[in-house]
Every structure is written in C-alpha cells, then in structure tokens.
Amino acid sequence: MKKRTNLAILIFMIVGIVVLGNGYAYAKNLTIGCRAEPTIDPHFLYLDTNIAFAAHIYGHLVSNDPNAKRIPSLAVSWKPLNDTTWEFKLRKGVKFHDGTDFTAEDVKFSIQRIPNVPKNPNPYTGHTSAITQIDIIDPHTIQFKTAKPHPLLPADMTAIAIVSKKAAEGATTADFTLGKAAIGTGPYKYVKYVHGDRLVLKRNEEYWGKKPDWETVTFKIIGNDAARVAALLGNSVDLIDFVPPTQVNSLEKNENINVFKRPSDRIIFLIPKFDMDESSYLTTTDGKSLKKNPLSDLRVRKAISMAIDRKTIKEKVMSGLSIPASQMVPEGWFGYNPNILKEKYNVAAAKKLLSEAGYSNGFGMTIHGPNNRYVNDAKICQAVAQMLSKIGIRMKVDTMPKSIFFSKVSPPKGEYAFFMMGWGHGGHGESTGWFKMGIHTYDKEKGFGALNQAMYSNPELDELTELAVTTVDDVKREQLLRQAMATAMKDIAVIPLHAQMTISAARKGIVYIPNAQERTIAMNAKLVK
Fold first, then answer.
1. CA distances from 44 to 48, 50, 164, 188 (A)
2. Most buried among 26, 49, 383, 434, using CB within 10 Å?
3. Domain 266-500 in CATH: superfamily?
4. How many other CB atoms sit within 10 Å of the CB of residue 305?
5. Are residues 448 and 439 in contact, defined by beta-carbon separation less than 8 angstroms?
C-alpha cells in the first residue's frame, strides 16, 4: 500500500510539474492573430495599426491610455512657454535597445526624419508640419517653435515614434524592416519579421516603465477574418483583433473564449472626388466616358447619401455592431455638432434629386475600397453599391489590399473617383486633426491636407480650420470645430456611414483591454492569475 501511495504521489508531482510548466509557457509567450501587416519603419505609412506596432518597439514623447487620454511617456512633462513655443522635459535614464542613452538629439532627429521618408503613401507630416524650429536646451529639455499658436502639439507627439539617431541616421525603410535600424526604447525588442507571416518580439528587460507580462510576443499576420477566428478556436493563437461582427455572438457563447468590445473613434465614410474632370470610373450607363463629373453636383452627392440605408448596414453587414454617423466625429467626442442630423434613407427623394441634376437615367460609377483595413470593408462597399443601384447608378465594386489601395488614393494624384475610407481621432481626441489633415485644401509645404484624398477645397472651411488649430481656448476651439463640421456636412464634402466597434477575443484566462483607437497592444493583455 505504501509503495502504491508513493507512486501516486510521484505521478501527481509529475503531472503537476507538466501543468505548471505549460502554464508557465502560456504566461510567458503571447501569440496574437492580427489583421494588419506591420511597417517596421515607424515613420512610413501613417495608420493606427502601424502606430500600434511601433508602440511595442519604440517610444513616444506622449502616449494615450485605452480611452485616448494623453499620458507622459518619454516626456515627463510639457508646457507652453508662450503662444508659439512648447517645452518638453524628457525622461532621464532611458536606454535604447543597444544600450545607448536616449536624449533630445534623438527626438530632434526623429521629427526631422518624418518629411524625408521617400515614397511614403501616407506620411506623418500632418503631425510635425506646425513645427518651424527645434531647440535643444540640454540633453533632457527640448523646445518646439511654431509659426502660429498650436494647442495640439502634445497630441501630435502621440503619433511620432522616437528612433535612435545612431541607428537610424542614413537608414532606409528597408533597413528598419530587416531590423538593422529598428532600435527603440520600447518594452519589446525586434527579433524577426517575416513579411506576410509574423513579427516576433522579445521583452526589453531594461525597459524604463512597467514590464509587460509576456516574455515574447508573436504577431501572426492573418488577414482573413474567418481564418483569424479559426486560429483562435484552434488554439494556434491566444488573442485576435478585428473580430468580424458576424462571429461575436458565437464566440461569446463559447466558454473557452472571452470577447472584448467597445465603441471606437473611427468613422467609416465615402469620398466623392468631385474635382476630377474625367475618369474611367465615371461613365454613362452604357460605359461611355462622361465629359462632366456628376459628383461635382451637390444634388448628386446628396442623392447618394440619401440612397444609403445606414440602419440596414448596421443590422445586416455589421451585425448590430456599428453606430450610424451624421458627421466625421463620434457622438460625445470633442467637436461633435449635435445640430447635424443623420441622413434619412429615402430612395424616391434620391431619384428625384438625380433627375433634377440631369441624370434621370443614372450613370455608371465604380466604388473602390480596401479589403483588409476596416471591419467588413469589402462587404460595406458591396452593400453601398447595391443600394446606389436602386436609384439608377450602375455600380461596379473594386476592393484590394490596403497596401495597394492607399497608394492609389494618396494625394494629390489619387486615381479613384468614389471610394471608402476610415478616419480615427484617437491621437488628438477631437476633430481638429481631420480638419487639418483630412479635408483642408492640400498644401504640402504648410502640411495642411496631407491626407486629403478627396482633394476637396473650400476657402470657408480652410479659414475655420486654421482658426481652430491656433485657438488655445477649448470652448472657442470647439465652437469653431462645430461650425466647420456644419460647413463640411452641408457641402457633403464626404459621406459618413458609421462609427465602427473595436472587438478583440482571447482564450480563456487572458483579459484584454481594447482601446478607442483600435490599436492592438500586447501590453494590454493580462494573464488571469
């Protein structure tokens, strides 16, 4: 009996060691099934997903918490010295991954590198163009001068990753991709990047801040929504982002899965590019070229907006997980104008407007969009096309990977006439960024309209925008932003559809905090003890 008891104890101990060993490995290694392909160069291709990847390897002067509130990071404090000078005090004792000290020289170099990244389809210049001069006061004090008052400069810094001057000076985007220049101060170090497959990181044991739970993090790139869900259900990944709304209900019923969701700050919208004289994507109903762009007529743009059933998109395409939008900022965010009403779905009125504009027989049009950037982006394009066909517009749909799509819509020579986009406000926490970068008349030298894919231009809106971005008083700035939003929506400069939700899911035992910016952050994943 004693021998049997001892044997039982031994078996129990072995099993316990195996279980503890597996639990230890599970706690130390996190695999995330992610939708987006990263750009390791943190100054190439401005996207929230790339800002998220950069947050693991690099540091920012200012960071955002999950609710988009600005918090200190590589800068411990900041303040305006006068109307056109901001001073930032930098954190002392911070080391880059190669052991070199972080100083103001690295900050200056990083900001000056932004406009010089070649062939950048979506540059970060909208966040740095206001800076006219950078003065290093001492290794841990830096001042930024602007031509005009710029109240959002601390918010701008949330998007600008700080790279090592020593490692990145003279480096190309390819050097970052290979890891040669990917030297940051972030909580993780670059290990390996296999294009189209995975990014592997290891914990920075010398990180100045709170060390993350996970010793290694692997971002497994799975662009297909169904495949990403299958990977989670099959235990080949621990966490996934951009959960398709159609899968939320079944995942919530699975006792081995936790689902985490919250409204995002991102508005999904359509761009009618009405500055084009002729386009192969705008034709007669029998495919012949149109000499006049129908989208240049406000009545046509209004008809398109009225023909879109946003409620049906919410219920049928987004499975209830979207919030129909009336404007380019979600309700409750700074700058939201409560006086702008949501467009009412009215096919008969839309047809009448088209007829009044001289298109009683309709016309032909192609809607373009990405198929791997926003939640159900390709499905939204298909739904919009079906709805517009009901008012006589002969529609074609062309969606593609975001890497191709963004290069085709990049200002000032975007190719497409009518396309779907998304805009997130998390970096600023208000609508100012969209007015400055997304809809102000394109001006490369001043940095206005850097992301104005519509190439829209309205002097009245420009004036309101330029006043808003130089108004320090929050009450006055919000009044200007609301007035600017009313102007843009009256002109139907763009056609808002909805605010999407940010949804993630994880294996049981992992708790994840999603954020309003839809940024997948490994540091927000915690193991339940």
1. 12, 8, 16, 20
2. 434
3. Dipeptide-binding Protein; Domain 3 (3.10.105.10)
4. 22
5. no
Q: What tens digit of pLDDT does each residue of 398-444 get?
A: 999 988 999 999 888 889 999 999 998 866 778 998 999 899 999 88
- List, for residues 484-527, the tens digit of each pLDDT value: 999 999 999 999 999 999 999 999 999 999 988 889 999 999 98
Q: How far apart are CA 493 and CA 495, in angstroms?
A: 7
Take residue 128 and report the two structure tokens written for it: 């740095």
Contacting residues for 185 by C-beta, under 8 A, at least 6 apart: 58, 59, 74, 94, 95, 96, 97, 102, 162, 207, 208
Token match 């800002």: residue? 51
The answer to whether the beta carbons of residues 79 and 94 sit under 8 Å apart is: no
What distance in Å separates the CA atoms of residue 76 and residue 63, rounded to the nearest whole number?
11
CATH of region 33-221, choose from 3.40.50.300, 1.25.40.10, 3.40.190.10, 3.30.470.20: 3.40.190.10
d(C-alpha 282, C-alpha 288), whole Å: 9
At 136-168, the pLDDT tens digits run 999 999 999 999 999 989 999 999 999 999 999
Separation in Å, CA 186 to CA 88, 170, 191, 523: 19, 21, 13, 11
Parse the chain into domains and list their residue ranges: 33-221, 266-500
Which tops the pLDDT comparison, 206 or 450?
206
Which pair of tokens denotes residue 312? Answer: 């049906």
Tell me the residue length of the chain: 529
